[in-house]
Amino acid sequence: MKIHFNASNHDLARIRLQQLVDFYGHNALADATHIVALGGDGHMLNVLHETMTSGLPVFGMNCGHLGFLMNHYASAELPERIAAAETAALHPLRMIATNKDGTTHEALAINEVSLLRQTHNAAHINISVDGKNKLEQLICDGVLLATPVGSTAYNLSAHGPVIPLGTELMALTPISPFRPRRWRGALLPETSAVELVNLEPDFRPLSVSADSTEFRHVKHVSVAQARDITLNLLYDPGFSLTERAIQEQFLV
Fold this sequence. Notes:
six-stranded antiparallel β-sheet; 39% strand
C-alpha cells in the first residue's frame, strides 16, 4: 500500500501529517494507491476535487470540528484500517451555467449546486425536471440541488431532507421561499436533469455555486449527475455515511 497524505493548513492537521509521514512514509500522488486526507469536511471536499481524475480511494481522518465526511483520527495501524474499510462510491453533480451575455461555465459539485440572489431583490426562478416544467415561478432567496453527501450540509440548514447514501435520490430544496409558500422542495431520482432559469436576470441578478466554485449574473443553470466520474470514499466498518445520515435524523 502506497499512501499519499494531504493535510489542511490547520496546525493540528500539519502536526499529525508530519507524524504520519515519519511513521509510514509519503508517496507522490502519481505513485500512490490510496489518499489519506487530514482535516475537516471542507478539506475533504477540496481533496476530492483536486484528485478527482486520479481515481484513487480517499480515507479521511478528522482534524477539524464536525468531520461528517471523516473517520476518527488514530495513527496506529493505518494501513490495516484502510485495507478493512468499506467503500462509499459517489458521483458528483455536473453544472453548466450560462451568463446573461451567453458565456457558459462548467463545474462539478460533490455537496450541492445552489442558485442564490445577489442583491436585496428576491429571486424569481423557473424549475424544470427532465424537460418538463415543474414550477412556473419560485420566489425565494434561492434554490439548491443536493447529493446524499451534501444533504447534511447547506441542504439541512435550509430545512431540506437528509438522504442516506444508496437511496439514489437528490434533494431539490428552496431557500427562504416566499411563493409558493407551501412548497418545501422535492426528492428526485439521481438520474434527473434539472434546469433552473432566472426569470428576471437584469433586475434580479443571481449567482450559482457548485460547492466552492461560484459564477455570477447567471441566466440559466442545468444540473445532472456526472455518471462518468466515480469518487470512492473509505470508512471504518460501522462508521459509514449511510449510518451517520440515518443517525442525523434522530438528533434533537
